[in-house]
Known about the structure:
By secondary structure, the chain is α/β, with parallel strands linked by helices. The chain has nine helices and twelve strands. It has one domain (2-249): Spore Coat Polysaccharide Biosynthesis Protein SpsA, Chain A (Alpha-Beta Complex), CATH 3.90.550. 31% of the residues lie in helices and 23% in strands. The strands form two sheets. Strands 1, 2, 3, 4, 5, 6, 7, 8, 9 and 10 form a ten-stranded mixed sheet that branches. Strand 5 and strand 6 (91-93) form a beta hairpin. The model has no long low-confidence stretch (mean pLDDT 91).
Amino acid sequence: MIYIPTRGRVDKQKTYHRLPQSVKDYAVLVCPPDEVEAHNIRGRNAVGCEAEDIAATRDWIIEHTIENGCAHLMMLDDDMILQRRREDGRITNCDDQEMLDAIQWVYNSLGDYAHVGFGTRFLGYNEPGEHVNTTRMMYALAYDVRVLTDVGATFCKGMPQPSTMEDFNMTLQLLKAGYDNCVSLEWRITPGQSNAPGGCSLWRTTPVQSRSAVALAALHPGLVTVRPKKEWRDMEDGMMDVRVKWKAALGHG
């Protein structure tokens, strides 16, 4: 299944609208219960989740996947653009067939890896290969749910609520347990504007972000260090961010 967590963006579904119709048929918007009807009226599959923050919502999605007997899941942020690296090095938007190919790549890769994603365009990635391993995953997250269950890995594990950096927390748990990841360089993500109206901006504050950074470092000592974050849209000064030693995390646990 493909899940798109969303909140406060009924009239602006950037990711969903770009999906081929054949993918929309099995993509599910995970939203607050009071937004389900509005999505359904617009012809979208939606399911209500009462979790307040993204970490708890992602954990709810894992449980929903298990209850439905699915072995794999993919989560896509609701405001991203899926792109492809061309032979001349340019990165441009995918057409419908390329989106299908990208999704197929994910599910093929989950046969070899427990967690798989797409490279983010803003990180650059100068490597010429098809993918990189043992690295950060953001915006598009796919998992072998059976491994999550075996490891006991969750997005909220050890983190205060509400929290951010839940994607880093999950990746670190799996890497420490010895499960490497695979992040595509052929398929890329251009995310939406940071802190745009709706979504995490409804509850993410400088104290929440900073508290999450400190908690993540405490959970993964020697692998995560806290550092000041550069100015971020509509956020107060003094925000803290993290630096992560992804390579050192593999098998560290």
